[in-house]
Amino acid sequence: MIKLAAVILAAGRASRFQECKALAEINGSPIISFPINAAVTVTQDIFIATGFWHKELEAACKENHWPAKTLYIGKWKEGIGSVISSVTEKLESDYSAILFMLADQPAISTDNIELLWKVFKEHINDAVCCQYHDTVGVPAIASKTMFEELKTLKGDEGAKHLLNNGKHMVNVVAIDQCNIDIDTQEDLDNYIHYLNHMASLW
């Protein structure tokens, strides 16, 4: 049996957003609530990797009764690679796979995550990741066979090169929603406008 942990990466300062981006609202719901809701159908073990905004996210988690625990990462200043490394080190003894998600991808749906999990369970692989446009990335599920390499990550370099180096069995799933991420207030405003005025056209 595969024991899966879901980790929502929210440790950075989000300096381009100039406030706690993960708690900015989309039609009354914090951005981070969307990946939490998407992950809960595949595992009950959900962690929010926190750093600069730890106190705010921990308080929001308790106030909203989210089915998640905060996991403070002291190395958050070093970059996402160091965060992924620390998360893997903290969870490796209890889990055989980790689903990595971003706090700022509100379009990711339950169906998207269930599809990734289905592919992961039904195929032999070291990882399953999303493909969108000309790249691959998160959400992604990493097997324990990749944990040692994930623990070597440092600084701002994430795990994308591990998915592309040809050393691992990686299954790729095309999910266009992965392309939507919120970096700035303008991104958020545009996404809310799309939801409220244009989504029904598709």
From TrEMBL:
The keyword Magnesium applies. One of its GO terms (molecular function) is nucleotidyltransferase activity. Keywords: Magnesium. It comes from the Bacteria. InterPro entries: MobA-like_NTP_Trfase (IPR025877), Nucleotide-diphossugar_trans (IPR029044). It holds the Pfam family NTP_transf_3. CDD domains: GT_2_like_f (cd04182). Residues 6-166 form the MobA-like NTP transferase domain. This is Purine catabolism protein PucB. The lineage of its organism: Bacteria, Pseudomonadati, Pseudomonadota, Gammaproteobacteria, Vibrionales.
